Structures are given as C-alpha cells and as structure tokens.
Amino acid sequence: MTQPQLKKVEITSAFWKRYRELVVKEVLPYQWDVMNDQADIKIAEDPQNNGQDKNSHAVANLKIAAGEMKGHHYGFPFQDTDVYKWLEAAAYSFSYHPNPDLKKITDNLVDLIAKAQEPDGYLSTFFQIDAPERKFKRLQQSHELYTMGHYIEAGVAYYQATGSEKALTIAKKMADCIDAHFGLSEGKIPGYDGHPEIELALSRLYEVTHEQKYLDLAHYFLNQRGQNPDFFEKQNEADGIDRDLIPGMRDFPRNYYQAAEPIKDQQTADGHAVRVVYLCTGMAYVARLTGDQDLLAACHRFWNDIVKRRMYITGNIGSTTTGEAFTYDYDLPNDTMYGETCASVGMSFFARQMLNIEAKGEYGDILEKELFNGALSGMSLDGKHFFYVNPLEADPAATKGNPGKSHVLTHRADWFGCACCPANLARLITSVDHYLYSVHDDTILSHQFIANEASFADDVTITQENNFPWAGDIHYTIANPHTRSFKLGLRIPGWSAGNFAVQVNGQAEDVAVTDGFVYFAIDAAATTIDLKLDMSVQFMRSNNRVRADVGQVAIQRGPLVYAAEQADNEAPLWLYRIDRNAKTESHYEADLLKGVTVVEAAAHREPEDPADADLYTSAAEKPAQDTQLTLIPYYAWANREDGQMQVWCRRG
C-alpha cells in the first residue's frame, strides 16, 4: 500500500463525543436563533466594547442583499462570516449526526446565499446594500476577501458533506470574481485583503476542483503581500482618508496587517494574532501544494517565534487588547492578555497544515494544546456562552474597576457584537475528526489521542481506544486484511517524552523517538499496539525571560493545563504558594463540570492583612498556613460561581 489514503474517521472518544453532540443539539440551534435575531441575549459585556445592541442581523443582511427584505446593513462589514462559519460547522456535523431538519435549514440558507450573490460572483452584503461604489476600494478595512474566503470554506465543506453543487458553484463564482479583479496584469488591483483568509480558502477550493487558477491566485496573494507597503494608505487616500469602515483601523502600523514587507523577509509574528495564524495556515497550505521553499521557510520562522517566544502555556496567543495583537518576544502578561478564541482555533489550523507537510511531533503537541486548552476554553459547558478573551488570571473586581482589564470577563457572555469566535470554535469541534491523522507517502501518522475508528484505502482500519485526557493508556488495533506494507507513526507528547512504554502484540518493545514520533512497520493482517503515557502531575515553569511568570509554577497533567478557581479555594488566590516538590493528588469526579480529573496540591497560604492595616510595612516574613490548593482543567473554568481564577501560582 504505497498511498494509505484516509477515507473516514469516526470519533468514539467520550470526551469529544459530548462536545460534538453539544454543538449539534445546543450550539448550532442557539447560534442560528442569535443570527436570526430570535434569541433573548445580552451583549452589553462585549469585551470589544463595540456598542452593538442585542441584534446580530447577519441573516437579515443576506435577505436584504437578496431582495427579500428592505433596510440597511447592520453590524461589521464582515458580519456575513458569522453565517458562513455556522454553515461550515453544520456541514461537518452531518458526518456524525445526520439531521434532516437542520439539512432543510442549511439548504434554504444556501439558496438564500445564491440569491444574494451578484451575477459576477461578488458577495459582501455591506457593500451591496450600502456602499456598492466602494467595492474593493478600501481593502485594509473592508474584509471583502476575508468574507468571501469564509464562504468558500463553507461551500467546499457543504459540497463535500452533502454533494451540493449549488454550494460549490457559489464558491467558484466568488473565486472567479476575485480572480477577475486581482493580479498584476493591466486593469487589475495589485493588492490583497487586510485580513488574511482568502489564501487558505482558495487552497481548499483548489483541492476540490483541481482548477489551477485558484491555487495560482492564493499564491499571488501571498507573494504580493508587502510588495507595495503603502498600498493600503494609497487606497485609503483615494477612497477618502476619513471614510473609515471600522473606526481606528487606519491607526495601526503596517505590520499589524502583515503588510510592511514581503513574507519572505518577515522575521517575526507581528500584528493582529488571528491575521497572523490565518496567514500562516495559507502559507503552509500553498507551500505544500506548490513546493515554495520561501513560504515554507517563513512558516518555520513564524512557528518558532510564536511557539518559543509568544505563546501562553495554554496555547493562547495575543498579548494585548490593543489590536488583539502580538507585542514582543516573551511579553506574556496573564491578567491583561487577549488570547482570543479565534487565534487558538487558527493556531490549530496552522499546526494541522504543518503536520501535513512534515512529521514533527511538536506540531501535534501544539495542536493538542489548543484542542484541550486554549480553544476549548472559549465555550461554556452548556454551549450557550462564550469567551472572546481567554485570560490566565482573572478577578471580577479588576474587570469592573480597572479599565485596562475590562476586556477580561470572569464569566462567558451570551454573544458579542463582533461574534467571530462562537461559530469558529463550533466548526473546529465538528471537524475535529479531520485533525487526527496525517498521511505521508507510505506512512500514517496518528498524532492525536482522541479515540476513533479510522478507515483507509485497501480496507486498512485503525481503531484507537482510550480514556484520554484522563488516562494515558492508548490501545491501537490495526486491521490490514490484504497484508499491505506501510508504516504507522505514533506521537510521543513532549509532556511524556521521558517516560512512556510500548507493547506490540503484547510484547514490550524499545523504540527510538524520531522528531517526536515512534514508528512501526505494519505488514501483518492484525496488529495491536499499546502506548502508555505519563499522566503524573507536573509542575511547569516558564522561560525566565517571561517576566510575568518568574518565581511561579503552573500545574499540568497530561495535555491539560490546570487553574485554581475561587469556587474551590479561599480568595484571594494570590496568597497561595506551592513548592515545586509539593505533594499532589489527582482524582476523577464524574459529577463535577461534566466529569473532570481534579488536582490537589499541598500549598502554603499567607493570612490576609486586615482592611485597616497600613498600606506598606516592614518586609518581615509572615507565617504561612499549610493548606491545599484545588485545581481544575483550565478549559472548564468560569462554569460555576463568578470569582477569581489563576493558572500561575507563586513558588516557594
């Protein structure tokens, strides 16, 4: 079997099946009601302070563009994308939860989108309804290509899930419209969108249609970015310098848009975090499809900068609320950070594409970190409340009393004026089956420990059984009825690299780790492999260049980063100290937070000073009381009473 092509993956993991069913039963219906302005929601606590009221109006915008309603556009220029990401999430859900009622809604939605699309393929409702004369004339802020890119992704997914030619035709017409307007030939626009997305969308469209022009167009957008650093400024001046589509967007520097220089010259991951990782995903996609080594080298540079210098222990990225952006290396404040849910979702996209290029376990490590921590924390356990910002330290008093921390919520919100995150997370969860395997020539890589049954060409099946992330015993059953020869690579996570065990057909084996993977030659009709990973509690420290975390420890067990909450511990939480050698215990509580393993660590707690004590006094050591600190998985915080939370705890 020279090409062990993946055919289908069925998720059997109890942990992920709960989330995937939650999306179908709660998240998708709830979000559909919100987008149709039929949900009783509050968005007054929007961390973006966008000033929106309780309406989304996203579906109504499409109806106005289609001539089914009258009125003006409401919301951001990219409001359409809420609908498109929701459609994509619904499309993925059909593979594991067929739903005729939902299918009627999505088919009707595709019909509405087709009706709203203009004859030349253009579709961005803000410009169609209220500013037709400004199409493609303020790309720094317009999000037109970003918006159409999100539909292209949804259209491809819907076509693959349902066979809908109409959905795919809409996507192709959009891409053809963009191709007709952009490029370096005479009469075309020699530019690109201020928010990367179209590059990865066109790559997906190429993989389905095999039409070279779509890949060429994606390649063009990547190569053209930064070639004319003043492109956006010139467009803004021609359009009218003060006619901003989004207030304040003109004030950001060029590197905020990854437009200060060509990609091949960019050395660090700068600017708006979501833009960066969407760009990186497109870069990796096109590099794989074209063999462009400059793009691949840029992927490596950006990856290393993000993962080694600009990422939180939970996988969240974006250090400041100003522009939702990266700042500088090792600047990782915990209580004023941003850590947007969309950025963690986008980092998952990037990691997946890098795994499709090369077999390096670090990509699988980061994907796992995002799936179980940074991204998953963006949604409540009931599926109806969401985080835009994902802090590592939070305090209701600080959120209320300090304007610099007002973006840090201590409970998830119903919805947001800028609602990019809820549907983005939904489409990641419903498509998580696409994130478990990568195939390289004659090698199948199994890089995520999410229980599943996978089928490949030549009737090969791989069944993975486990109770992950609570237990580290991973059992594989490989059925190879035609006794084809291929290799199977299993990732050894960085958190277990020094302590793991392998058995093949019941016999212990010593295996070498190569770039984070161990490999097995599969040529028998039936093979079993048992992998035992180290699930002991680990105390983690940061690089001491990270000022915010010096002298502190975080607790991790398996892939999960843990957090202390006021719900379990007497406030204020900053009075606790933990020794690196402290005794810990962990146990599973089935009735807590839908079932979690709780970690308890021996700790010391200083007594709180009286309210009338002097503000400053001598630094004599205060006696500390022996106690214990109770911690829960980070993704599950803010699902009980409102209160303080922190991931990092003082050491000593």
UniProtKB/TrEMBL annotation:
InterPro entries recorded: 6-hairpin_glycosidase_sf, Beta-AFase-like, Beta-AFase-like_GH127_C, Beta-AFase-like_GH127_cat, Beta-AFase-like_GH127_middle
Residue ranges of every copy of the Non-reducing end beta-L-arabinofuranosidase-like GH127 catalytic domain listed in the record: 9-433
GO biological process: carbohydrate metabolic process
Domain named Non-reducing end beta-L-arabinofuranosidase-like GH127 C-terminal: residues: 537-649
Entry-linked Pfam families: Beta-AFase-like_GH127_cat (PF07944), Glyco_hydro127C (PF20737), Glyco_hydro127M (PF20736)
Coiled coil: none
Non-reducing end beta-L-arabinofuranosidase-like GH127 middle domain sequence ranges: 443-535
PANTHER family, alphabetized: DUF1680 DOMAIN PROTEIN (AFU_ORTHOLOGUE AFUA_1G08910)
Protein name: Glycoside hydrolase family 127 protein
Organism: Schleiferilactobacillus shenzhenensis LY-73
